[in-house]
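Sharing a chain and its predicted structure for anyone who wants a worked example. Both blocks are below, sequence first, C-alpha cells second.
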Amino acid sequence: MAADVVKVVDQGMEITTDRLLDAPNGNQPQWIDMGTGATPAADADTVLETPGGEARTVGVMTQELTSVADDTLQVVGEIVEADGGAAITECGLFTHLTSTTGFLYLRATFDPINLLDGNSIEFTIQVKYDQG
C-alpha cells in the first residue's frame, strides 16, 4: 500500500499569506523589535532574549514570489537605536506593539550589527512557506 501524501499546494501557500495579511483582531505579525540576545532561536521562544529599549515599529507587510506566487510573507520596517548604541544580534516579529498583548511569530539571530545612538536599521524579514 502506498503511503498517504498530504501537501500544501501552491494556492494553499497563497491562502496562508493572505490570512496573515488579513488576520482578525489586529493579529498580523507586523511589529518588529530588535535586541542583543545571542542564544539561537528556539521553538519555545515567546520573547526576544534581550530586547533593546526602543519601541517596536510597525512593518509594511506584503506577499512576495520566491518559488510560486505569494508563497512568501515579507515585513519591512526601520528601528532607530535610542539606547546609547548596541551590537544588534536578534530581531523578532510580533502581533502587537507591546509585550503584554503581542505574541512572538518569528525570532532570528545573526552576526552583530553595530549601531551608534541615533543610527537606524531596516529589517526585511521574509517568511517563505514551502511544500517541502
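Comments welcome. The mean pLDDT is 89.
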